[in-house]
Amino acid sequence: MPSRVWHLRGRRCRQMAASAARGTSRLSSHVSRAVHLAVAAAVLLGAGALLAHAFAGVDARATARAVLRMGPAAPLALFPWIAGMAMDAAGMRFVLVAMGRRVRHASLVLVRVATEALHMTAPAGFLVSDSMTASLLATREGVPLADGAVLAVGRKWLVTRAHAAYIVLGAALGAEALTAISRRDLGGAWLAWAIAASALVPLGLSLGLGLGFRGYGALVRIQSALAKVPNDSFRRRVAAWREHASAGDATLRRVGAARDLTWSATACFFCCWLFEAVDTVVILRLLGVPLDFGFAMGAEVAISLLRSAGNVLPAGLGVQDAGYAALLSAMGVAPDAAAAFVVVKRGKELVWIAGGYALLAVLRRLPSRTAASVAFGTFGAPAAPAVSSGVAGRRVEAVAHAPHAANEGRGVPELLA
Fold first, then answer.
1. How far lies 74's CA from each of 150, 228, 269, 343, in Å?
2. What is the pLDDT of residues 129-144, one digit of tens each?
3. Three-state DSSP state, 333
4. Angle at the Cα of 315 (from 158 to 337), degrees rounded to 5?
5. How far apart are CA 68 and CA 325, in angstroms?
6. CB burial class (10 A; 0-12, 13-18, 19+) of residue 14?
7. CA-to-CA distance for 244 and 223, rounded, in angstroms?
C-alpha cells in the first residue's frame, strides 16, 4: 500500500512539473512575442519621426506635380537597379567558379532579385537574404549549404573591398559639392575628407574577412576554441565538426588562391555600387534636375554610409530618406524636387520588392533541379545517400558525387561557359 501511494505521488509530481514546464514555455513565447512587437513598434516610430522631419514644410501638391512631370519616361527609373543586380550576380558567379561550382548567371540574377526583397524589407535583412540565397542555391542549383555559407562570406569580403574603393572615388568626384556644403553648413572644408577616411571601415572589415581566405585556418581555430568549453556533450558535438571545419578552410583557401577570379568579382561588385549613382542620376534627370555624375557619386557615397549605419531598419527606412532630403537640399535642389526624388526612389524599391517576393514564391514552389542529398552536402562535395555496401552502394555514391567531380578537372573558361 505505501509503495502504491508513493507511486501515485511521484506521478502527480511529474505531471505538475510537466505542466509547469509547459506554462513556462508559453510564458517565454508570449514574452518573446511581446519583445519583438515592442522592437518593431520602436523601429516604426523612429522611422516615422525621421520621415516627418525630412518632409516637414514640403508642399505635397508641388511634389506630386514634380513626380507626374516624369510622364511615360518614368519606367526608366527601374533599369539601373536591375543592372546592379546583374553585376552583383556576376560577382557571385566568379566566387562560385573559384569554388569549383558552375551556376548559370541567369539563375543567380533571379536569386538575387528574390533575396534582395528580403534584404530591403527585413531588419538586418542581409542575414535573412544570405540564408535564403544559400537555401535557393542548394535546392535549385545543387550548391551545398556549406558552400553557400562560404559564398556569403566571400561575397561580403569582396563587396566591402569594392565599397572602400567606391567611397574614395565618390568622395573625390563629389569633393567640390561636399566641400561647398561643409563650408556653408558645417564650418569647415572637412566633409569630403571625412567621407574618404570612412573607407577605412569597410576596408578593415574586408582585410579581416580576407584572413580566412589566405590559409589562416579560421574555421579550425574557431572549432578548437569551442572544443575548450567545459561541457562534455557540447565538446563531443564540436569534435564531430572538426572534419567539416578543415574542409571549409580548404574551400576558403581555394577561393583565396584564385586571385584573378576574386579581383574579377570585386570589379563586378564595384560596378554594382556605381549603378547606385547611375540610379540617382537617372531619377534626378527624369525630375528635371540637371546634376552630373560626380554630384551623384558624392551624394550616394554619403547616403551609403547612412544606410549602412541604419542597417537594422528595413531598407534604411527614415534614415535614408532624411539623408537624401537634407543632402539634396544642401546641394541646391529645391525641397519639392528633393521630396519627389525620395518618393520616386521609394516607389521604384516597392516595385522591385513586390516583384522579388513574387519571384521568391515561384522559385520556392517550382520543382527543384537537384536531389536533396546533393543540396545538403558538406564542404567540397555533395553528400552521398546512406546505402549498403557493395556494387549498388558504390554506384549510388558515384552518382551523388558526380556533379562536383565533373567540375574538378575543368578550367575557368569551361565553368564560366
1. 39, 60, 26, 12
2. 899 999 999 998 999 9
3. coil
4. 110
5. 19
6. exposed
7. 10
